[in-house]
């Protein structure tokens, strides 16, 4: 692998002292996933990373970024000693950004950050080498790690920026210094830390404070807070808009779900655009237009980018759909699973329910004879004082008319259970692991099942159980038969 940081380069970037020469090929903060050649960063969280430095070096780490010589180590070990480890990591990130030739693109938003980042990875990969954040590396650790990992010869870098509290986005955006930045949408999320959705909009719009001179600010249209976003965008650089509102630079005309795909019809300054996203959901269609705007801002051909959107599918936990085969021989003994268990707020819950409502169950193959649309929902977290009302309001969503049964996990979801019509009430438990124990009894062949909830609700344990209902080798045996 190519050398990412030499000891001299890393010391110059951080102002630290290298006890030995080293050449690191990667960056790691976790000894469980560390690779030989990584620079281990001894951050302090629940445990102090210094406690794991010896283990990291024994596993082949090239060196460790530390603020002191850890127990079990000495100056004979390759250490980069700095005053503060997090500040050292941030300095490494800024240096990684400064030396890179890449066009840097940043993404934030209440919903769709990670999906948009992965869409960008897919469309940009056909037009150059891409470096993008892993998983949801979007916080005060994740952004500098992503920048510190940025190869000098990458053509594009995609940086995801998130927040939980006011004042978090702007410093990360200034560290990333993007050529273009996009806000996917603004919706009720993290209301425990913000007084209003307007406050969230101002925080999201602060991503534009990091734009380089002449940068491009990409904003969604058709929101109640779009004026706030537009004003911030126009002050920061060149504004480009996307969404359903007339006059949008990338205007969404229609998004039609066709099986496992979404066919998107749009307009870009009078030029019609027709493309397909290989997953169902109008929200994916809208975000795809923002991705096209980012790709164009990066100097890519938007027509090729639109075609390459068809190569993208959502990652696990973010709306990924798969068929779970419970029998190797009989392919009818199966159900469809939407795994959307990584994040949830009212906006993303609404989008997921619309997808479930549009899915087609299969009749005549299970115990119930009629295929059902089933929602398995966990708590939406960080919604503040209105959390009970926001959970109960799900019962009034238009998609509920087509959903047969709703199973729930979490204390907040008790409000939804009370609001649901009795015929749609499934099982409710305070903890997701209890619902996971019951999961195999809640579904039937022919069903379409959505699992959705905030990561902290741990409803992903239900996904794990449902996937284990699939027989080993069955998916391969039935591949191409559907």
UniProtKB/TrEMBL annotation:
Domain Mur ligase C-terminal: 326-454
Residue ranges of every copy of the Mur ligase central domain listed in the record: 107-295
Keyword Cell division among record annotations: yes
Residues involved in ATP binding: 109-115
Catalytic activity: D-alanyl-D-alanine + UDP-N-acetyl-alpha-D-muramoyl-L-alanyl-gamma-D-glutamyl-meso-2,6-diaminopimelate + ATP = UDP-N-acetyl-alpha-D-muramoyl-L-alanyl-gamma-D-glutamyl-meso-2,6-diaminopimeloyl-D-alanyl-D-alanine + ADP + phosphate + H(+)
Annotated metabolic or biological route of this protein: Cell wall biogenesis; peptidoglycan biosynthesis
Subcellular location: Cytoplasm
InterPro entries in the record: Mur-like_cat_sf (IPR036565), Mur_ligase_C (IPR004101), Mur_ligase_C_dom_sf (IPR036615), Mur_ligase_cen (IPR013221), Mur_ligase_N (IPR000713), MurCDEF_CellWall_CoF430Synth (IPR051046), MurE/MurF_N (IPR035911), UDP-N-AcMur_synth (IPR005863)
GO-annotated molecular function: ligase activity
Domain Mur ligase N-terminal catalytic: 25-68
Pfam family for this entry, one: Mur_ligase_M
Enzyme Commission designation: 6.3.2.10
Subcellular location, principal: cytoplasm
Keyword annotations of the record: ATP-binding, Cell cycle, Cell division, Cell shape, Cell wall biogenesis/degradation, Cytoplasm, Ligase, Nucleotide-binding, Peptidoglycan synthesis
Similarity field: Belongs to the MurCDEF family. MurF subfamily.
Function: Involved in cell wall formation. Catalyzes the final step in the synthesis of UDP-N-acetylmuramoyl-pentapeptide, the precursor of murein.
Protein name, as recorded: UDP-N-acetylmuramoyl-tripeptide--D-alanyl-D-alanine ligase
Native organism: Thioclava electrotropha
